[in-house]
Structure prediction request, 485 residues.
Amino acid sequence: MPSITLLGLGPGNPNQLTREAWDVLSSAGEIYLRTVKHPTVAAFPSELVVHSFDHLYEQAESFEEVYAAIVEQVLELAHRPEGVVYAVPGHPFVAEVTGRELMRRAREMGLPLRVVEGLSFLEPTWRALGVDAFPHTALVDAMELAMLHVPPFPPSAPALIAQVYDRTVAAEVKMTLMAVYPDEHRVALVHAAGTSDEAVRWMPLYEIDRDDRIGLLTSLYVPALAADASFEAFQEVVARLRAPDGCPWDRKQTHRSLRRFLLEEAYEALEAIDLEDWEALAEELGDVLLQIVLHAQIAAEEGEFTMTDVLRGIHQKMVRRHPHVFGDLHVADADEVVRNWAAIKAQEKGHQVSKSVLDGIPRGLPALMEALEIQKRVVKVGFDWPDVEGVWRKLAEELDEVRAARTPEEQEAEIGDVLFVVVNLARWMGVDPEVALHAADVRFRRRFAVIEQRAREQGRPVEALTLDEMEAAWQQAKREEKKSA
Prediction:
């Protein structure tokens, strides 16, 4: 009757065929193989007629096309009165696309399907390595990993990467792994596990594509980098701090109590960038991440949202707003990217009625940043000077008003107006006022340190220096800056 017998051939040693599999091979008149390139085939019963789909690998442009074609042909063969026996390496449902798809399609069609289990490549691989897959080894396909830029599993867990079938794939896998793992990280290539040709070769990660034994039965084992080397492990640390038996200080924090820390840590990260201190930046980014994970943990405890919601939301947003990367949209330059971003963002918020062009500007921004964002918004609707000369005239006007101000309230308001116009001037000149003022602060600190150094050299407190002495030291600092520049 029409049917499919889906048979696993084991990892390669004929002695590892199951009794059930051997009975099927002994009684079947013919068998169709995904590939004849498997050591067990040589031990088939002599009277068995063997067909294979190896020719499809030569005809198709991708593995996906090969597997789809195999599935269609097996389903067609299955409708014969005698049905079809189809065999695959290892186990039919371990690293085997056709087995999974055949079961799905057979169920849809009401076609009987018998699965004959087979030992997968996994069991002899664990034995060859002398490791246990538990509690959390990641299982990854080499082809999928090779197409990524970073590994899709945490480095705090070991990983087994299957089907590293040639040195080109090994090289691509290596590049993906090296985005996270050190070049010298010790890994193991496992060749032909479960066969007489089995071999395990330990080596630094950067050398894996140099092994001339890489072939169809090669896997790569990547030991864990460190227990504390993953985002998930850090989440557990934060959750433990917030647990009933955790840290009293962390347990009492709320979104609002942590608000200032988020801002402080962000500014410390910016300072590390300004100083080009990359070691410090790594530390400060960790502090920023702590704040993010703390807020997500608090939200999860309160039933507001989870870290999964945070990650999924930003993931989808980045993909959605970059159709020129993740879709088929073509852009000419970065300016067009910005325009597309704004258009997509507007579409996303189309269901929300905006009361003002200034809606959405965070009230908690530093004043200079808020002023710049306000100006960028109103410029989009045409509220701007026709040229920069208008800004200069406005600045002169506001300075005159500061001079004329008499009460503290008037002076505060007029100084605010001057600062707002200065931000406008910076915008016209293409200067970020926040960055510019911060750089001025840094220069001032550096130059005033020279004044303090001059006082120490003279054995005097800095306040004992005259203004002329301070000015001389200040000018000396400026001259030294120009020389070093």
Summary: The chain has 19 helices and ten strands. Residues 271 and 277 are 9 Å apart (CA to CA).
